[in-house]
Amino acid sequence: MSESELREALHRLASQAAPARLPEDLWRRARRRHRRRMVTAIVAVVLAGTVAVSLLQDVSTSRGLPPAAPGPAVPATVYPPVPGERTVLSAPPGPAAILVMSDEGAFSGSDVSWHGYEARNLVVGRNGRYRLLRERYGGGMLTLSPDGRYVAGTTMMEGAGWSEGDVVAVLDLSTGEVRRYRGGTPVGTWAPDGRHLLLWHHDSRQLRLLDLDSGTVRDLMLIGDQRMRGVAFAPDGERIAVQADDTLHVIDLRDGSQRELLDLGTRTRLAGVGAWLPDNRTVAVLDMAGCETDCDTRALNARVHHVRYVDADSGARVDGPRLDGIVGVGAQLLGWQDDGDAVVTRHDARDGVHNGPLRATWDGTEWSIVRNVELLALHPGGGQTRLVDLPDGALSVDVPRDLIRAGAFGGPSASRVEGYVRVALGAVSPVLVVLWPLLIPLVLALIPICLTAVTSAHRRFRRTRPVDPSVPCR
């Protein structure tokens, strides 16, 4: 066939072919298809994120250390909780390595807002699991038992049942069980045996000792109209140091006797729950240097707290480990490591805090004035080391006494990827909490749309047939 004949045949075939029929709404169909694909992609991202968060909550369990294992156990870095973090009641983590406390707003993005729990505290188990421990209001007194298995708090703690005065709630982190004891509220101090707890009875103004096995309470000291500013058990559990107003008292549990040891004055106070040195004879106090009254935030944060020592029998000043001063609005001594290091918390004041022209009635560690907290080891002879990188919004921290004594810090943390995800979700979580009531019905509404889009795509694929060039045109 010549070229002219081929051209003529093609023209003839073209004239006989039916013209292409395009639907009038072709543009609208293409737009709808594009929107369906976008919606499908968004839903896929949301579902993938939900699954990722669920997996994230238990991803680090294999990197933790069992409670009895030697070596580090407190993680070197603690990241913020993520939205939807499981609670200590729904999934008990076992004995804690660290408890990070926060009031309303700081960790608020880690939980939906309508549960009614304004304070969201974070427990990191020794197996690496992150769990929320919620309270109805911030600023509650939460404290870990010496072995990290129990948390003592008020009836504002989730799982305590109902709010009631002069009642302490004790949560078992291994089972999720909460037990209530009448007789007072906790003052943040466990006995070294882990079976006794100091309580404050508001009505009688008494300092009491609770026996958790029997549930019985024992009156130790009438505080009266004085303000109890600190309590600490001796390592052998036989004596207790108590500061009421400016006076330091010592209670002997063996015979029930109590005596005034010395007047500390306005610039000195009991160092904290770990104030007793391992020798059972020496008590540490904090001497504050810096602005005492009419101080703004900058002056308060420039305070320096020096660790000094008194003899528990005579009240005389004695020598002890020479430690660096702690700079901040407040500080607290949590305990002593076997190598001689002191484990302390250092607190910074919130912007705008001012203690007025009169002497402040707070000690510088209260949540209402604290912006953040830092956990440090002070080395004898000078120097200090930050023990844990804490998340923003941490206002207080507690570590079990057995881990403090062993110097069990710098342990495994969450992976770097998990850490980045937690930090990122923590940054956007307040927005997610606000949008969460809208996201649930949106996701439910998008599910049938996605199914319809997938079904339509499948049908179009089945109708589409590839052209076989061997079949002649007719």
Fraction of residues in helix: 10-25%
Estimate the strand proportion: 25-35%
Shape: elongated
> How would a textbook summarize the main sheet?
5 strands, antiparallel
Please trace the helix and strand order, writing H or E for each element: HHEEEEEEEEEEEEEEEEEHEEEEEEEEHH
Arithmetic mean of pLDDT: 84
Secondary structural class: alpha+beta
Radius of gyration, whole Å? 32 Å
What ranges have pLDDT less than 50 throughout 5 or more consecutive residues?
A: 54-69
Q: What separation lies between the terminal Cα atoms?
A: 19 Å
Count of helical stretches: 5
Oligomer: single chain
Question: What is the tally of beta strands?
Answer: 25
Which properties best describe this structure?
single chain, 474 residues, alpha+beta, 5-stranded antiparallel β-sheet, 4-stranded antiparallel β-sheet, 5 helices, elongated
